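Appendix C reproduces, verbatim, an entry submitted by the partner laboratory led by Prof. M.T., so that reviewers can inspect both the input and the predicted structure.
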Amino acid sequence: MTKTAHAQATRLRRSLLQVSSLLLLSILATGLLGQFSAWSLNNADANNNHLLGEYIDMVDAARGAQATFKTQVQEWKNILIRGADQAERDKYLAAFVKSEVETDAKLSALSLAATRLGLKDRIPEIESAQSDHRTLGTKYRDALAKDGTTTFSAAAMDAAVRGIDRGLDTRLSSITVSIIGDESTLVETFARLGNERYLTLSRTLWILMGISLVLIANIVIRMLREHS
């Protein structure tokens, strides 16, 4: 083999080695980027689902607070209807207190969840509703206490607190609607960010493949020119 032929063979081997190396690097980089893309999308989806789960729990807590408050009001009505009998009065008063405690507990849980999620616009609404609920409890008890233990006037007690539950019931409903709105906004945000993330990763992958193909094509063209 002449020196010229030997040099050409050496250059050919070098060119083939470069092409092979670029192909391997391209495959490796594409694989790593694909793995990262899958992990990134899966991790984002898991985090999003966890956060949405917390919002769903908040909606359930808000609805639960409203439901137990309605039960509390109904128990008060039971006191008015059947409270002439002391045993019945004690029974329904205990049920009233039970619903009152449950409502307060659900509002506390709702406030803690809003604080944990950083919902600064919702925290004052929830805390104000809880404060109003506690004030109503005092008013109901005052109406019951004024009646005394020897007489029972359902009409007088009803007149003292009639309609005071409506405003809070409306506020609890409004809080629930607001949280549902926050959840819907979050879903839209996740959809937009997920689409942007996918497009960015996809674009990066295509750019990487394009650069690899250009480099390989340059080496192949140069190799063909040298051996033409």
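The radius of gyration is 36 Å. Additional entries are available on request from the coordinating office.
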